[in-house]
Design goal:
One of its GO terms (molecular function) is gamma-glutamyl hercynylcysteine sulfoxide synthase activity. The chain is an alpha+beta fold and 455 residues long. The protein contains ten helices and 14 strands.
Amino acid sequence: MTDDRAPSAPAADGFPPTPGSLDPEALRRRALDALLTARARTATLTDSVEDGELTAQHSPLMSPLVWDLAHIGNQEEQWLLRAVGGRQALRPEIDGLYDAFEHPRSARPSLPLLAPAEARTYASDVRGRALDILEAAPLHEGGRPLERAGFAFGMIAQHEQQHDETMLITHQLRSGPAALTAPGPPDPTDAGSLPGEVLVPAGPFTMGTSAEPWALDNERPAHRREVAAFHLDTSPVTCGAYQRFMADGGYTDPRWWAPEGWDMVREHGLTAPLFWHRDAGQWLRRRFGVTEPVPDDEPVLHVSWYEADAYARWAGRRLPTESEWEKAARHDPATGRSLRYPWGDTDPTPEHANLGQRHLRPARAGAYPAGRAPSGAGQLIGDVWEWTSSDFLPYPGFVAFPYREYSDVFFGPGHKVLRGGSFAVDQVACRGTFRNWDLPVRRQIFSGFRTARDA
């Protein structure tokens, strides 16, 4: 995270630095756009419901929306106003209230939180000062680590977008009529001609990054990985395929389940993905306040790691490792390079991937041909977070930055890695090296999967 490489030096991980990393003013514009995009989304998520819904806890798994709103402002104050700008604290007395490690989500409604109007004013006051700091901050490569290449501003934009995704999960969990609407994603044009799986040949590739200016600590450093040949699903597993697992007794046969997963099935009486129910011989789902038939050709959503693992075992396959997933997504055998994204080094467009809450659902399997990787696999970015078989562990040479609690405290066998991002992820918080992680029991997240097998 403190790479002192000159701007003209080649990137260690094979792709050139992004344009903004070479030009402080381009980076400043990039940071401004990322911050404004995140705040507009935050406003959509919090202005779309009444104050009573902002202060309510819609699930013990999630915070009240008003907590997320003020937490976004508090993190921005701590890192941009205080750490980068050297400003005096605006509201030091609330730091503890919005410390995610000090108070579990289930306990946050009992805290003396800022009311909605006060939380909005606070976040707005912080933002105005943060933009003043951005305007004057030196973003050159030789500057302080937090300022270099605009890292702190990119980190805060990513943090806000991650909480926007969390708030969108809360919207999915809340009862009542829909508060959000969006058009459907584009249909695939050649799904019928796509192979069911692709072959990723054996060999080394560069995993992680040392060049991406806003990459977070767990994505670093770039390093070589040797990966044996394997086959990978061309698209994420669909609802129709998952229903075949269910119809074949998938939730009633312990053969397919890890012991802890089978315990979860029996304890909670699981029979289907979260938000699904059976009515008149048809599977329906509730999606952001609307009940609709489960679409057969859409990637399955809201499944835990245990469910993904059980399906893979039933299918005679397995979940890919994190290294396999990243090689399939980034490695270009023609050049030997690792790309920023499956399609290349350019930032995502609506033709590449389903991102940014644009559609409020995954696209059908086979969509976004422009976003496919050299391996032939598609929809590796956007649509659904994809469970891998890997535990969340540090890369060789990992250094925690700028604080240990972002990644380091989560390393170990308790958390499984998800890759790729979902339709709820903004492009600033999603790239070929981005790593997400969660407990293997989690179902409320926008998670799906694809399977693999040895070649």
